[in-house]
Amino acid sequence: MMSAETSYSPPASIKVLGNDDLVGEILSRVDSPTTLVRAALVCRRWLRRASDGAFLRRFRASHPPRLVGFFVTGDWMPRPEFVPMNTDLTSAASLRRTAGSVLHAFPEFSSPGVCDSRDGRVLFEFTDGARGPRRLAVLRDPAAGAMAKLPPRPSALTDRYHAALLPDDNATTCYHVDVHHVGRNVFVEVTVLRSGVWSVCCSAKADLTTPPGGIIPKVTLLAGGKVYMVTVAAYIICVDLATANLFAIDLPEGVTYEHFGTLVPCRGDDSVLYIFHAKGDKLSVWLRRMDNDNDQQLVAGEWVLRDTVSVKETCGHLVEPGSELASVVGVGDNAEFAFLEMGVGDNYFVIYLHLGTRKAEKVYKRDPDNDEIIQVHPFMTVGPPVFRLEQF
Predict the structure, then answer these.
(1) For the domain 64-391, what is the CATH code?
(2) Cβ atoms < 10 Å from Cβ of 318
(3) Coiled-coil intervals in this record (predicted)?
(4) Which residues are bridge partners to 77 per DSSP?
(5) In whole angstroms, how far apart are CA 213 and each of 181, 210, 266, 290, 391?
(6) Angle of helix 20-27 relative to helix 53-62, nearest 10 degrees?
(7) CA-CA distance, 284 to 377, in Å (whole number)?
(8) If we measure between CA atoms, which residue out of 310, 292, 191, 306 comes closest to residue 249?
(9) Which CB contacts under 8 angstroms, 24+ apart, belong to 235-239?
(10) Of 87, 131, 216, 247, which has the fewest CB atoms closer than 10 Å, so is most exposed?
(11) Cα(359)–Cα(13) distance, rounded to whole angstroms?
């Protein structure tokens, strides 16, 4: 019989699961991001561990999102095309089938297009009926091929429509960005769809030092709770959704927007913004941390040149002599890869370039009769989740 003086020894399971470091080791070894989300729902202690920035960086390194294929979209195309990429993932085959078949869910003459793609989700726009308004639909669960048409916004500001974007988190369905600018004055309204209801997320305005000239919708992105919009002028407009601040970020010296595909922003982890800049034979990649920004009109950017690529040396063997870099038509998160359009005459191709390995391959041939802008949206496996503690 145990005496009263005998100290209580907790079970081994409690010793393990009550140790934050050991719990972190266990969570880092789960088989998928989906399993990590389920584990994070066990208790707030596990959620705090799973949402830690250092932990998520390590988890991403061991469970990186993989490129399954890409959507090609353009004004001339009656509907997007899905192009599969070779990968050894077991689940890739089903994801490729889903991506290839989901386009058939749209009725004829609905003119579907791709607005955004991230973490296995795809946001489409389409026409509701032969002459109906533009609507949105989202592929939420790529494994099941579940696509849902989204409710229309109560009041569509058609003359101010700028972009529709997928969120950073799973609690939100999508964002809609409306922009209006006259001279130096810029007004942005962002609406959000949550639980089937549209509401205004934020309204922001500012008198910028220099008129934007034009704000480019096809290269607008959402990252880290901020919307970034490329302008014809030498800066990027940023709208902080949490503070409703609108300000401009100066571009690095020598980096300018000349035409579509010469300046493309890219999402990064830990509040990092990347930009791809194409000029002549050179492709440069810049990065800038965004977590210390404020609401100044022109924020002094601390840009760092991460990489410079000679397109002729890395991709020249894939195309005819005399081919030039036409544009950057798509990029991967964290500047992992880029899709470049290159060619000469009637032979223009999309080249996939992995920045780390410098591996390049020809993945798509452009229709010679098409002289419109095309855009590539990478379709990835599900990446590490983004947890927001205030939601729990």
Answers:
(1) 2.120.10
(2) 17
(3) none
(4) none
(5) 9, 9, 22, 24, 39
(6) 30
(7) 20
(8) 292
(9) 235/208, 235/210, 235/298, 236/265, 236/275, 237/186, 237/188, 237/208, 237/212, 238/290, 238/293, 238/299, 239/188, 239/190, 239/202, 239/204
(10) 131
(11) 47
> What is the number of helices (H) and of strands (E) in the chain?
7, 24
Pick the more confident residue, 229 or 146. 229
Q: Identify the CA nearest to 165 among candidates 229, 108, 251.
A: 229
Amino acid at 147: M
**Contact 136/160 with Cβ under 8 angstroms?**
no
Q: Could you give the CA distance from residue 166 to residue 134 in angstroms, rounded to a whole number?
A: 17
Residue with tokens 């549209």: 198
User: Which residue would you say has higher pLDDT here, 340 or 280?
Assistant: 340
Residue located via tokens 């855009």: 375
**Is residue 372 exposed (0-12), middle (13-18) or buried (19+ Cβ within 10 Å)?**
exposed
Helix (H, G, I), strand (E, B), or coil: what is residue 216? coil
Map out the domains of the chain as residue ranges.
Answer: 12-59, 64-391
Q: How high does pLDDT run on average in the chain?
A: 83
Q: How distant is the alpha carbon of residue 301 from its chain centre?
A: 22
The amino acid present at 87, given as its one-letter code, is T
Instruction: Give the pLDDT confidence score for residue 380 in this predicted structure.
Output: 86
Q: Which tokens belong to 284? A: 């440069």
For 1, the token pair is 């019989």
Nearest-angstrom CA–CA distance, 364 and 347: 11
Predicted structure pTM score = 0.82
* Nearest CA among 225, 249, 245 for reference residue 237: 249
Report pLDDT for 231.
96
